[in-house]
Amino acid sequence: MHECCPVCDLRFEREPGYFLGAMYISYGIALATITLLAVLLLRLTGWSIMKATGWATVLFLPFAPTITLLARVVWIYLDQAIDPDRST
Predict the structure, then answer these.
(1) Is the dihedral of CA 57, 62, 65, 66 positive or negative?
(2) Rounded to two decimals, what is the model's pTM?
């Protein structure tokens, strides 16, 4: 990951552990995605809740890296909205 944005020179990581908060966002997005997939599988296949949830989790796995990046972007936007980095 770059230290700063090449366009606006925003520092991406202000301090060690800066993206710890993004884990909470990532967890929420993952939970919503798995729930949506499980509900779709329940409706379409009529499987049990356990089987649908298991398969929803497996189907979710390829999306995990993308969701992690999305959570980091959302975290940066939230952080900049609440406490802008004025050091640039």
Answers:
(1) negative
(2) 0.79
Q: Residue type for 72, please?
A: R
- Helices 20-45 and 49-60: crossing angle in degrees, nearest 10, is 130
Q: From CA 62, how far away is CA 75, in angstroms rounded?
A: 21
Distances in Å between the Cα of 16 and the Cα atoms of 4, 12, 79 are 15, 11, 15
Task: Note down pLDDT in tens along the chain; length 88 residues.
Answer: 677 888 887 887 778 888 899 999 999 999 999 999 999 999 999 999 999 999 999 999 999 999 999 999 899 899 888 988 666 5
* Inter-residue contact 70 to 29 (CB < 8 Å): yes
Query: Closest Cα to residue 83, out of 9, 14, 23?
Result: 14
